[in-house]
Amino acid sequence: MSKRSIFTKCIALVALLTLWACGDDHEPGVTAQTTVTIDFEHFVNGAPVTLGSETPYTNAAGNSFGVTLLRYFISDVVLHLEGGDTIAVPGAHYVDHDDPATRSYVLDVEVPAERLASVSFVMGLPPALNVSGSFSTGPEALMEWPEMMGGGYHFMKFEGRYINDASEPFNFRAHTGGLHDVDYSFDVVLDAGNRPLPEGAATLTVVMNLEQWFTAPHEWDLNDYFTAAMPGIMANAAAQESLQDNGATVFSLETP
Length: 256
Ligand SMILES: [Cu+2]
Fold this sequence. Notes:
Layout (H helix, E strand, L loop, with lengths): L2 H20 L10 E12 L2 E2 L8 E2 L5 E18 L4 E11 L7 E3 L4 E2 L2 E9 L14 H4 L12 E10 L5 E9 L8 E11 L3 E10 L27 H10 L4 E3 L3
The structure holds copper (II) ion.
C-alpha cells in the first residue's frame, strides 16, 4: 500500500468518525428537555416602569400617576405545546418588583424542547390556593387579606400616587383579592406563536402593562376610587370586578 493510499484512508476514517460524533447525539426516542424560566417585567405605556414618588405617567382618563410598589401572585402556570400536550406547574409564585429574585420564576418541571403554542396562568390565587395561613413566612405572608373581608391573600398590591382634581398628589392603593366568597382571580392565556423552546434552558418574558389596569373596558378616573372620603377599594366589590375585567389586557408575552 502506498503512503498516499494510507493517508487517504486515514482522512476518510477521521471524516467518518467526525460525522458519527456530530450526528444526532440524543438517544433514539428520547426528546430533548428544557428548563423554562418565566421572567416578569413591568411596563407603563410601553416602557419599563421606574418606581418612585413622582407622577410621570398618564392613564387613559388623563390622570398623572406614578408607581411606588408592585407585588402580586400568579399561579397554576400551564405550558401548552404545539402538538397539544400540556405541562402543568401547580402552585403560586410571588412577584415583587423591588426584589429581582422574585421576578424570575424557574418552573420546577422537565419540559420537552418542542414548540410552545401558549402559556396560561391565573392572576392572583384561585380559591384552592387562597387559604388563610398557607403562607406562614416570607413576604408572601405579608400579603394577607383581612379575615373580616373573607381572609386569604391579596392578589395584588399596586400602589402609587396620582394628581387629583384638586391638583394635589394623592396616594392610591389598588389592592385586589377575593372578597368574602367571591373570587376575583382570573385566567390569563398568552399566545406564544409556536416559538421553539431551546434545549437546556428557555426563557419566557411576561410583561404586566400597568396602565391597562385603568384602561378598558372600564376607564378608571382615579378620582372616582381614591379620595380622602373613601376607605379604599378592598371592600368594594364593584371595583374588584372592574379591575378583574380590565385585567384581560394587562399581560403580554414578549416576542423572543
Ligand atoms: Cu390591601
